[in-house]
Amino acid sequence: MISVKTDEDIRLLRENALLVSKTLAEVGKSIRPGVTTLELDKIAETFIRDHGAEPGFKGYGGFPFTLCLSVNEIVVHGFASEYRLREGDILSVDCGTRYKGFYGDSAYTFPVGEVSEETKLLLRVTKESLYKGIEKAVSGNRIGDISYAVQEHVEKSGFSVVREMVGHGIGRRLHEGPEVPNYGRRGSGKKLEDGYVLCIEPMVNAGTKHVFMLEDGWSLSTADKRNSAHFELMVAVRRERPEILSTFEFIEQNSI
Length: 256
Ligand code: MG
Ligand code: MG
What we know:
By secondary structure, the chain is an alpha+beta fold. About 30% of the residues lie in helices and about 25% in strands. The strands form four sheets. Strands 8-7-9-14-15 form a five-stranded antiparallel sheet. The chain is globular, with a radius of gyration of 17 Å. The structure holds magnesium ion (2 copies).
C-alpha cells in the first residue's frame, strides 16, 4: 500500500518526526561508557509519553521495547538489556512514535566515547549516504535513484550495504509501501509522487554485506561480527526538492 499524503497528513507526520528527533537527542545526552541500554530505553519511553505520544515500536509485531538499540555488529532491531556500553562501542538508536494517528521513525548511530578512525569513517559515510539518497527524493525520480545514490556512496568508500532490510513509506502505519532498498539501479522501480513520505535508512557494514538473525528472532548481526551503522530520516517527496521532516540537529547541538 502506497499513499500520497495530504498537507494535513504531512503536518501530523512532521509533529511525529520532531518528537522522534528530540527523543533521539534526549537519549544521546545519556550515551556514555557505563550506561545500560535498558536505561536508555526507559529515558526514551518516559520522554515520549511525557509529550502525550506513545512509543511506536513497543508491541509492534511483538517488539518488546521503545527503542531498537543495536551495539557494534548488530545491524538493527537489537533489544535493550543490562549490557553496559563501553568506550569505543557504537550504538544505533532507532526510535518510533505514534501520535495523533500517525507514526514517526528515525535512527542515529552514536559513538560511545572515542572510537577508532575506521569506525568514525563508517559513521560519516553512512550518514552521508543517507543525504545522497534524500537528494533523489523528488517527484518524477524513481526509487532506484535513491537506492543507487546510497549504494554508490557506500561502496566507493569500501563498505557494504545490507540487503535484507530496507527503508519504507510511513503514515498511519509504521511500514507502508514503497520499499526503499539501499541498493539498486538508477531509473528502476516505482516512480516517486509528490506527497509520498519515506523513511530512508541506510544500514552499512564495515565488512561483508552478509547478516544473520540472533536467537531472539529480532536482532540482526553482521556475519563477520564487524561493525554496522544505521541512520534514518523521514522525508516528504516534493516537486522541487525533498522536504526532510525529521532532523539530527538536536543531537548534533548536544555534542558540540
Ligand atoms: Mg527506524
Ligand atoms: Mg524505518
